[in-house]
Amino acid sequence: MAFDTGLVLLVLGVAVWTIVARDTFAAVVGFVAYGLLLALVWVRLAAPDVALTEAAIGSGVTGVLLLGASTRLRRTETSGAGEKPGITLRLAAGMLCALVSAGVAAIVLKFPEPAPTLAPHTAANIAATGLGNPVTAVLMAYRAIDTLLETVVLLLALVGIWSLAPDRVWGGFPGARHHADPEGVLTFIAQLLVPMGILVGIHIFWIGSVAPGGEFQGATILAAMWILAMMAGLVDAPSVSRRWLRLLLVAGPTVFLAIGLAGFAMAGAFLAYPAPYAKLLIVTIEVPVTLSIAATLALLVAGPAERAPQR
Amino acid sequence: MSTATLYGLCSAVLVGLGLFGLIVHPQPLRKILAFNLIGGGVFLLFGVVACRGAGMGFGGDPVPHALVITGLVVAFAATALAVALLLRLFEQTGQATLRSDR
Asked: For testing the chain A interface, which of B6, B9, B20, B35 should be mutated: the one with the most A CBs within 10 Å?
């Protein structure tokens, strides 16, 4: 309990920092720490799958994205000073937020007893999926439609970002070409870390069927390795109009949807798997989905095209 | 007070803090950051609900855990889109402000 109290105080302290820090860059650094501390909280709440996702996406990839944006927007920081709301508005906002917090706290203190849970249903049916990790079973079998729609949402976000590119660079390369010192520490770390990171990513994905891990966590690590390689200048970001890239991005949702539709013929419902082949079909979906998510996440960080395509 | 309740109260404070930042910060990037802070609090509340629903040999109810994993990924996608819109605004106008009178 003492550990939990200390952890809560740390989380709250870092959260306050991200709000009150004057410098946006410092606030983003606070946010990265906030994500890592939340990952610890998830471990304390017996949710290692979520802890991995929080550390990888909530803290890691979001952190890279926001750090990049805050560096680019640094010039605009001082100009916003005149827009700060007056003391009255701040007080009113403070009271409103205290009220919202009190409302949520009241709900927390009045949670029903015994707690409602779907754990027995999950446990009763997990054998049919051939999976050992209940969270993966929920993601890939019971609530597979959520996961299918999520892969589509990721693609839509990427389409939205790509369509922000100006006409002159339409279909070109995202971001600036990074040139790191070939003898420098970033290149060294990238050369050392990327091969190991790819192995770890594949392992986390593969182990997800029986232990904490899964396609989202594995895909995020793979995406992070690609981002690192791009930042160190080892590889350039691909031009967004490349055919192979587009195929890679849609492969996951396409295979997912195809197997989902085949469920009508094989088991009588959308996204239903015939029991003897359940695990085989789930893995067949997961492999392309992992690759597509990894590519999508990396390109979401890379942003819209900024350099014209070579003709 | 149980551990779950403690983290539940923590999530309540996080939601309030994030909302405050969202309202009072004039810079859009700080608003995006504050919105993600709220997200962290809401996901944590899900975690508390899952933790209370532990049973059948699972550490927590796996359904809210799966929902949070989906939510984290979608929150990232939305953040990336918001940041891209903001950077485009900056590129177009040379400023990053939500004021409409300039």
From this structure: B20
Q: Flag if A57 and B56 touch (Cβ within 8 Å).
A: no
Query: Which pLDDT score, from 0 to 100, does residue A81 have?
Result: 58
Q: Give the pLDDT of residue A80.
A: 57
Task: Assign residue B86 the CATH number of its domain.
Answer: 1.10.287
Rounded Cα distance between A67 and B66, Å, is 28
Count how many domains chain B has.
Answer: 1
Q: What is the least distance, in Å, from the CA of A183 to any CA of chain B?
A: 32
Residue A158 class from Cβ within 10 Å (0-12 exposed, 13-18 middle, 19+ buried)?
buried
With helix as H, strand as E and coil as C, how does chain B read?
A: CCHHHHHHHHHHHHHHHHHHHHHHCCCHHHHHHHHHHHHHHHHHHHHHHHHHCCECCECCCHHHHHHHHHHHHHHHHHHHHHHHHHHHHHHHHCCCCCCCCC
- CB-nearest partner of B62 from A69, A97, A119: A119
- In chain B, % of residues over pLDDT 70: 98
Angstrom distance (rounded) from CA A211 to CA A203: 11
Q: Could B73 and A137 be called an inter-chain contact, meaning their C-beta atoms sit closer than 8 Å?
A: no
Whether B69 is covered by a domain: the verdict is yes
Average pLDDT of A206-224?
91
B93 touches chain A (CB under 8 A): no
**Six token digits for residue A186:** 């970033």
Residue at B8 is within a domain: yes
State the Cα–Cα distance between residues B62 and A48, nearest whole angstrom.
11
Domain-located, residue B99? no
Residues of chain B positioned with their CB less than 8 A from the CB of A11: 10, 14
Cβ of B7 within 8 Å of Cβ of A157? The answer is no
Q: Is the pLDDT of residue A94 over 70?
A: yes
Contacts of A142 in chain B (CB under 8 A): 63
B101 in a structural domain: no
What ipTM was reported for this prediction? 0.94
Closest approach of chain B CAs to the CA of A225, in angstroms? 17
Among A42, A69, A118, the residue with its CB nearest the CB of B29 is: A69
Judge whether residue A232 has pLDDT over 80: yes
